[in-house]
């Protein structure tokens, strides 16, 4: 299938790809820190890429709309969207649809433990990382909310205010549940 004019500009600018036939359909990972990737970037990206295993995004320009596009990826196991103030609880609906998702990191987003407690129900998740701060300060009843989440998803460890399940020396961190 040929490129549209907008797609051609996107693939040439972002990846220096001139032909749709040269785009790999399956990717291992996509990583960006402090990048200018936005919702439109992932719109064009998901038109041609079918499968990706890991997405690591920190302080890019994405919103809940980009998270909606991620649902189209087959084989997505790890999704890290740290430090995105425009990722809100509206994205939880899409996290629930990601069938193979094992790791989700939403630290320093607008998503709170309360939001996850009320809406997250993805049985494939093994690790969830979330901040304990809400917009109005420290969340209340953290252990109670984590316990509810753990009851709903018994095979999932919940971590508060951590980025990874191991420390700098490779020692395991303890989840709150």
Secondary-structure blueprint:
Elements: H1 5-15, E1 26-33, H2 39-48, E2 51-58, H3 64-70, E3 78-82, H4 92-97, E4 103-105, H5 113-119, E5 127-130, E6 133-134, E7 137-138, H6 142-152, E8 157-160
Parallel strand pairs: 1-2, 2-3, 3-4, 4-5, 5-8
Antiparallel strand pairs: 6-7
Helix pairs in contact: 2-3, 5-6
Q: Can you walk through the features of this model?
A:
The chain has one domain (36-160): Alpha-Beta Horseshoe (Leucine-rich repeat, LRR (right-handed beta-alpha superhelix)). Helix content is 29%, strand content 20%. It is built from six helices and eight strands, in the order H-E-H-E-H-E-H-E-H-E-E-E-H-E. The chain has helices spanning 5-15, 39-48, 64-70, 92-97, 113-119, 142-152, and strands at 26-33, 51-58, 78-82, 103-105, 127-130, 133-134, 137-138, 157-160. The strands form two sheets. A six-stranded parallel beta sheet has the order 1-2-3-4-5-8, covered by helices on one side. It has a two-stranded antiparallel ribbon with strand order 6-7. A hairpin with a 2-residue loop joins strand 6 and strand 7 (137-138). The N and C termini lie far apart (48 Å). The mean pLDDT is 92.
Q: What would the keywords be for this entry?
A:
177 residues, alpha/beta, Leucine-rich repeat, LRR (right-handed beta-alpha superhelix), 6-stranded parallel beta sheet, two-stranded antiparallel ribbon, 8 strands, 20% strand
